[in-house]
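Recall that a protein's primary structure is simply its ordered list of amino acids. Everything else, from secondary elements to tertiary packing, is in principle encoded there. The following example makes that idea concrete.
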Amino acid sequence: MKLFIVANCEKPKVQPALDALVRDLKGRAEIVGIDTDQNGDIDKANADAILVLGGDGTLLSTARKLHGRPIPVMGVNFGRLGFLASFTPEEFPRHLDLLLAGKLPIVRRAMLEASVIGSEVRTLDAAEVKAKRKFCATALNDAVITAGAPFHMIELELGANGDEGIRYFGDGVIVSTPSGSTAYNVSAGGPIISPDVEAFCITPICPHSLSFRPVVVSSSSSVVVQAVKVNEGTTLFCDGQASTKLLAGDRVIIRRSANDVLLVENPDSQKWRGLAEKLNWASSPKYNSPI
């Protein structure tokens, strides 16, 4: 098997783990590349699988840089939570044997594509948007429009599938995939969505309304957010990494990307148990002991 390794060596335990992995793979697999500064041409790697030593952020960056190439990604979590990088450093050696034997489950995860067009573009035809967009990026977790400095509320118009948009004031909006529903989305009060559900979640950030609740839409939807009144620092972020400033009149078109990401799943992980352990989901109240 040909392996490409992405290692976030800014994390203190990654370099020793990388050195041990290279020794362990000698004679068992071919290492076709090692990227330790996250600037490698991952999408050009001639690899059967990609090993990511880092956290969810490192895996998100790797997924975006694949540009749709169907190479399975196996994430080893050296970060804080590890929803996407689902293998712990302790579990990894045992599961590496299963990966090399082709016995680990591989799942598809949907990605978003966010395009920005200026006010001069009147149509939302996919071909014209592609030809005239000022910015385009994909995201495995979410596309977020945030107010930015000087941190006044902004006015956005939100619509989907050609429906007339509704206007609201607030600090922005999150459009997340099921994979990203446990990230910024859940912090802002959005629902947790199972990764196998074909849906996106639209979650307002601090809306100036008591009734503007998150909404779940089909992943075939085309979500359009127009910047009506914005700040100098109002920005679109994709997975918190790729970004661009937004001007008044700009429209952000968010659709499902034509390319999914292939993730190697940990066969020992349990989704409900993972939520309980990582987010204290459904934890019981702290009752006093009976007297």
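The first helix runs from residue 14 to 25. The domain at 2-109+260-279 is CATH 3.40.50.10330 (Rossmann fold).
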